[in-house]
Amino acid sequence: MTTMDRGVRGRDRVAKAVLYTILSISLLAVVGPFVWMALSSFKPEGEIRSVPPTWWPETFTLENFRDLFSRLDFPLFFFNSALVALAVTVGNLLFCSLVGYALAKLRYPGKRVLFLAVLGMLMVPGMVTFVPQFVLVSNMGLTNTYAGLILPFLVGPFGVFLMRQFLQSIPDDLIEAARVDGAGEFRIFWRVVLPLCRPALATLGILTFLASWNNFLWPLVVATTEDKYTLPVALALYSIGQNRTDFGLLLAGAVVVVLPVLIVFLLLQRHFMRGIATTGLK
């Protein structure tokens, strides 16, 4: 081995060590708050507020979780969140796939203009359309209803863009062969195209479910009675008072809110990673 080879290998080892150090620090920065949240949900209120903060609970307690299930109508709020998140997710999977298929595989006048409109909608902040969206829902009489919580989010530009990019990677010959066999466009979409879209559908499903499950501002404005509150709204309203915030209740609720999203991700992570890796290759 020459001196130059040893120098190159030495620099590679140093570069890898620096890279692993940066990645480890980044991992701690991301995971650290979640670990502290989970551990602190088992601490009494006084220990949570202690300075400096502690990592491992000095006094282990389940009082925060008992308060969560006794002070809140937890089954109702959980049902509301699950219903809204699942309906929004299913709607996005269906409608975004349909629109993405039309933009990727069908030929018709104005298709490029429609796709540019989708890209333009991606650049518009959600706060810009929030008030007009609420006025429209209110004029339709959908405030404080499940429909008002669900309908505005059944399809979105990001989902359309994601599915369109993935569908472009499906060979046109496969679709043409189905047309020659006499299959209609919807049958081609349902029986041929959709089964090939599992990675993209898993990616879109996880991202949509996460956004809908954690959505706070829209349910806070649209839901005016407790029987329509979602879990994040109920948790915030019950744990934050006029003069005092119940951090124990807030952290216990945060742990419960995170669990469904974590379970969904663990079940679909293989398809999620494939969808991220393959979407937009073409």
UniProtKB/TrEMBL annotation:
Localization per Swiss-Prot or TrEMBL: Cell membrane
Recorded topology in the membrane: Multi-pass membrane protein
Any Pfam family matching the protein: BPD_transp_1
PROSITE patterns: ABC_TM1
Keyword Transmembrane set for record: yes
Sequence intervals crossing the membrane: 18-39, 77-101, 113-134, 146-167, 188-211, 247-268
Keyword list, A-Z: Cell membrane, Membrane, Transmembrane, Transmembrane helix, Transport
Domain ABC transmembrane type-1: start-end pairs: 78-268
InterPro entries xrefs: MetI-like, MetI-like_sf
CDD domains: TM_PBP2
Membership in a protein family: Belongs to the binding-protein-dependent transport system permease family.
Protein's UniProt name: Sugar ABC transporter permease
Species the sequence originates in: Asanoa siamensis
